Amino acid sequence: MSSPRYWRGIPQRYRLEAGKCRKCGKIYFPPRLICDECKSREFEKVNLPKEGKILTYTIIRVAPSQCTDQAPYAMGIVELSAGSTGKDGVKILSQIADCDFDKLEIGMPVRIEFRKIYQEGEAGIICYGYKCVPV
After folding, report:
1. What is the pTM of this model?
2. Helices (DSSP H) in 1-135: which residue ranges?
3. How do residues 56-81 score in pLDDT, each as one tens digit?
4. CA angle centred on 42, ends 10 and 112, rounded to 5°
5. Which residues is 134 bridged to in the sheet?
6. 80 close to 48: Cβ distance less than 8 angstroms
7. How far is CA 129 from CA 25, 34, 42, 72, 115, in A?
8. Which end of the chain is more exposed for a tag (fewer CB within 10 A), N or C?
9. Is the separation of the CB atoms in 12 and 18 below 8 Å?
């Protein structure tokens, strides 16, 4: 991911900010400009809960060049709890860290933590974001 693209996504990554449609209540992460349900353009910012459960996962053994030092690692789709959004069903794609691959299972509860994702080159910027860890 390029530096400008990374910096544009900081509010979503750092604070887990999503967009909630004011008309129909659908929540989008990352936020959108137009609701695909009702076509509204009016959104409010909501912070997503920091707990959820694993819906599915995979183990990455051959990683992209910026993540080779982390391989093997687990990636999963996590469904977040209702929390302050008032709705279940917000799903995120996240690395699942600090876990034994043999103990990973569908439905396992996880929490979101703020972590280093990768670094651009030897002297490049350090990119932070969220990872999920088993509860």
Report:
1. 0.79
2. 3-8, 10-15
3. 999 999 988 767 777 899 999 999 98
4. 35
5. 110
6. yes
7. 26, 25, 27, 19, 6
8. C
9. yes
